[in-house]
Write a structure and sequence with these properties.
By secondary structure, the protein is an all-beta fold. The chain has five helices and 91 strands. A hairpin with a 2-residue loop joins strand 66 (about 690-700) and strand 67.
Length: about 950
């Protein structure tokens, strides 16, 4: 059972630091392994041999299966049997199971494992072939620490420790019974089926009744269309071959007279009618055993009027666990119902010690119930036998949710973010409904209830209702109290306060004119030390008129300084056109700062501290303002080149361009380059990868532009060589087109011209550029009209990855999206992991110079783990078309691996609109370490730095609920 863990949180929106406790469980409850007997990276190489100890097993005539458990004495079969590969790969599993879950072994714990193999000509399972003496074999038992633990979940463990083994044969063995015939107590007129399974399947069979052979009964099935009293007796099967014979266990058929009146047979297992609907535990596999669990039939004319039709009966145990009867028929006669009439029926089960279904459900006991089915009752002249519950399906038991920690009364400050959550145990998914003062709160359907910010009217009495398929439970009511928060030391933000000699005017640049509102904003900064200065409250406008140059901001709180503690304070002023002091400084706005003053904070009954002793100050520009940065330039050799940097010019601003040679070195002035534009009439290859920047200087300081590169490439020669890229042309044959390239999908440079000979243009790019550039894109443009002449944009990205394990995505549409084409050049032993939130990991590996699943297709924007042999650093060149149009997708609840389907990089939510809810997470795997980012809420943002996805990088996303990620990319200009 999974435990859903939730806690209380109080997240102060105005606080400088947010302390957030979190605990997110792993995806897998039980451990996982990779069922593969050849994984070079893990040192696993254990082929299986035939009875000669030399020839490797191959083909569909052999099977292998994993057996696992908590100890070597508790091994059970896991997953489904797999065939063997052929040719050079003979001896290895043909269909590795990928992620195999080991029941009862917690994720990350040690499991004991064994691989068993057999010859399928002797039976369908290892046990059957072993009993029949056919070829079987088993590896030594070994142990591994399973995968699947952690958040995100670790990859499945490899079968390190597995050793090769050979098949052995037991000779001169008679046939064996795979399945014994089963007896039945039936009513006159009911169908009855006896069947048997034997190995090997070519053995001879003969049915016997009361010790006498039944003429013609030599097949594996003995059927009675409508059983009669004369058919009662003891039945057996004799099987034989050249090594001997065996006699099956007796199967006793008893025949009873049909009851009078409308009747139903209370049974969920009737082989003759293909009825097999056992009662299962919440895992959907393990059958519920009696006698501690009971079942009862409910019937009625409508689904809302069902009543018990019989006393509860214990479920069977042992081999018949999960079924209502163990040999004796249960015929239920329905009073007031005419034989042959329809009724609605439902089966309900529950666990002791509760006396009835409703009591068990209300008190958190295990309960289950079938769907309501319609049944035509038995007892009619043409159908005297009780009718079976045709349509009954397996019943899964569960229990109503258990609230292990109810929300408790809380007292929270107004204006802050507050959060209450409930701790729930449930065997299956749950739904939540929150109530305030007895009324349902719309859209409050999660385990947590959040207020951001908390308002006075949010105070009240709350409850939460938690429901699942089985029932509903409601928490006790709790009170939410809202109060005004007053904490920390206090300081009075008044810059003219005569009683204490405070006089802090703010002047303009001339040192004489007072700065007047509303053109300027002022804010008080404070902290325990100068290094800890932070904004105290919101900015206020400077006063005007007779109080021009002064501020009246009221009392401010120093949250990190206690009352009577020592604090450092400073006043900062800036132009109103900027949102903050920091923004004004960055953009060259007019700013001013007072000296830093040390004060003793007020509070605890003391009056607020005042700004006594702080001198007045002037405002001035913070340096030249760069309003447009230069950008990286790509040109063909010999073409004119130019850079431009937009600077807000004033009479005393001086400009100077500088360059840094390719490969590094000191920055040097470009002689005579003292204008906002830098130009040459012609470029040379020697200038390739040179960096350029502009320095603007005035009396208040210097501002340096971004450093950008000049990339000079040779013009390409077009020929008849096989093309690497294919552009699908919009223009017809004979049109002269120019091939353009871009590294950023914004600036395009012509690199070749050619005449179109058809609807497609193939060309091969200079191979050196694939080494020199991280990404390049190509399109065709009509020389005559200047219009874009290709319907697609082709290109490549180059991913130079660190050794071993990487989390990647393919942000293009490859011409051939299959794994061998996309990951061409990776070495033998490379493993590709793909994660599915429902099924876990699937695994594809490159072995014997080919991929195990060569047909696996790589989807743009889907994340993959790529594991290469130790020390090998992948250098991948991924080619294809640029995805365009609607690229949206659904993000599931829980963990999933995502990636950007486009060759860009940036902050996943700000730049690419990744949908996020409070406490959702984004995680990156960067060389051998995790980087986990938690989204606190919309007011606070990220706990830590915003997550930035690099080019071609996959990343994990954890969401509390499914959401649509809306992505769209349209053609560049």
């Amino acid at each position: 059972m999974k435990r859903l863990v939730f806690r209380w949180y109080c997240l102060p929106v105005m606080a400088g630091v947010v302390l957030l406790a979190r605990a997110v469980g792993g995806v897998f409850e039980w451990g996982t392994v990779n069922f593969n007997n050849r994984v070079p990276l893990a040192g696993v190489d254990a082929p299986v041999y035939g009875t000669d100890g030399v020839t490797r097993l191959e083909g569909a005539g052999y099977r292998a299966q994993l057996w696992a458990g908590l100890s070597s004495a508790e091994l059970e079969p896991v997953g489904v049997p797999v065939e063997f590969r052929t040719g050079l790969a003979a001896g290895y599993f043909a269909e590795p199971g990928g992620t195999l879950v080991i029941p009862q072994v917690p994720a990350g714990s040690v499991a004991f494992l064994q691989v068993r193999a057999w010859d399928t000509a002797y039976g369908g399972s290892y046990e059957v072939v072993l009993a029949s003496g056919g070829p079987t074999g088993a590896s030594p038992v070994f142990s591994v620490r399973t995968g699947g633990d952690g958040s995100p979940p670790t990859v499945p463990a490899d079968l390190v420790g597995l050793q090769s083994f050979s098949l052995e044969v037991r000779t001169n063995v008679p046939p064996v019974f795979v399945r014994q015939p089963e007896g039945e107590v039936a009513y006159v007129g009911q169908p009855v089926l006896l069947r048997v399974e034997v190995a090997p399947t070519n053995a001879e069979l003969q049915w016997l009744k009361d010790g006498l052979e039944l003429p013609g009964a030599t097949g594996p099935r003995l059927e009675f269309g409508a059983i009669l009293p004369v058919d009662a007796g003891s039945y057996q099967v004799r099987v034989s071959n050249e090594f001997g014979s065996r006699l099956s266990d007796p199967a006793l058929i008893s025949v009873r007279s049909a009851p009078a009146g409308a009747s139903l047979r209370f049974s969920n297992r009737l082989p003759a009618e293909d009825l097999d609907a056992p009662v299962l535990h919440a895992d959907g596999q393990t059958r519920v055993s009696g006698p501690e669990s009971v079942a009862q039939l409910w019937v009625g004319r409508s689904a809302d009027a069902l009543e018990p039709a019989m006393a509860a009966v214990p479920l069977a145990s042992g081999v018949l666990a999960g079924y209502f009867e163990s040999g004796e028929p249960i015929a239920v006669t329905l009073p007031g119902v005419t034989p042959g009439q329809p009724v609605l029926a439902q089966v309900r089960v529950w666990g002791q010690p509760f006396d009835d279904f409703e009591t068990a459900r209300a008190n958190g006991g295990w309960v289950g119930f079938s769907t309501v089915i319609e049944v035509i009752t038995g007892g009619a002249p043409d159908h005297p036998a009780p009718a079976s519950l045709t349509g009954l399906t397996p019943i899964v038991v569960g229990r109503i949710p258990v609230i292990t920690e109810s929300p408790e009364a809380g007292i929270f400050p107004v204006g802050f973010a507050a959060r209450v959550e409930v701790v729930v145990e449930s065997s299956e998914p749950v739904a939540y409904e929150w109530l305030k003062d007895g009324e349902v709160i719309p859209a409050a359907g999660a385990a947590a209830l959040t207020w951001d910010p908390l308002l006075w009217e949010d105070a009240g009495t709350y409850q939460v209702r938690v429901s699942n398929r089985v029932g509903v439970v409601t928490s006790p009511p709790f009170e939410l109290t809202v109060f005004e928060l007053v904490s920390g030391g206090t300081i009075l933000f008044e810059t003219r306060y005569s009683p204490f000699g405070v006089d802090v005017p703010v002047f303009l640049e001339d040192g004489v004119t007072l700065a007047s509102g509303p053109g300027f904003l002022a804010q008080l900064y404070g902290g325990a030390t100068e290094a800890a200065l932070a904004a105290l409250g919101a900015p206020v406008t400077l006063l005007s008129g007779t109080r021009a140059g002064y501020v009246s901001g009221g009392v401010r709180f120093l949250e990190d300084v206690p009352p009577r503690g020592t604090a450092a304070v400073q006043m900062r002023v800036w132009e109103t056109m900027y949102a903050s002091f920091e923004e004004a400084k960055a953009w060259g706005g007019r700013i001013g700062m007072s000296a830093i003053l040390e004060v003793q904070a007020g509070g605890w009954g003391d009056p607020p501290a005042v700004l006594a002793g702080m001198p007045g100050f002037m405002i001035h520009p913070s340096g030249p303002v760069i309003i447009e940065q230069p950008y990286e330039t790509w040109i063909g050799v010999g073409e004119p080149v130019g850079f431009r940097c937009g600077v807000e010019l004033t009479p005393d601003v001086q400009l100077q361009w500088q360059f840094q040679p390719a490969g590094g070195g000191d920055w040097q002035d470009v002689p005579g380059a003292t204008a906002a534009t830098l130009q040459w009439p012609s470029s040379t290859l020697e200038q390739n990868e040179t960096l350029y920047r502009l320095i603007a200087t005035d009396q208040w300081g210097s501002t340096v532009s971004d450093a950008v590169a000049l990339n000079v490439v040779p013009l390409m020669a077009m020929g008849d060589q096989e093309g690497v890229f294919v552009l699908r042309l919009l223009a017809g044959a004979g049109t002269e087109v120019s091939i353009e390239f871009s590294s950023d999908l914004e600036d395009w440079v012509s690199i070749a011209r050619t005449e179109a000979t058809g609807t497609a243009l193939e060309f091969q790019e200079n191979p050196e550029t694939r080494v020199a550039f991280r990404r390049r894109f190509y399109r065709a443009r009509s020389v005559g009209t200047g219009e874009v002449a290709s319907e697609n944009i082709a290109g490549f990205i180059r991913l130079v990855l660190p050794p071993d394990l990487n989390l990647i995505t393919v942000p293009l549409l490859p011409a051939d999206p299959r794994v061998p084409a996309v990951f061409a050049g990776v070495p033998e032993g490379t493993v590709l992991y793909e994660y599915d939130p429902e099924a876990g990991y699937s695994i594809n590996s490159r072995e014997f110079d080919e991929w195990f699943d060569p047909g696996q297709r790589v989807e743009p924007g889907r994340g993959y783990y790529l594991l290469t042999p130790t020390g090998f650093a992948p250098d991948l060149t991924l080619a294809g078309d640029l995805p365009r149009g609607d690229l949206s997708r659904t993000l599931p609840a829980g963990w999933s691996i995502q990636g950007l389907p486009l060759p860009f990089e940036g902050v996943v939510d700000e730049d690419f609109f990744l949908p996020l809810d409070p406490l959702d997470m984004v995680a990156f795997w960067r060389p051998a370490t995790w980087s986990l980012n938690v989204f606190v809420n919309w007011g606070i943002g990220w706990e830590g730095n915003p997550p930035t996805a690099h080019l071609g990088e996959g990343f994990w996303v954890y969401r509390s609920s499914p959401a649509e990620w809306h992505l769209r990319y349209d053609d560049p200009p």
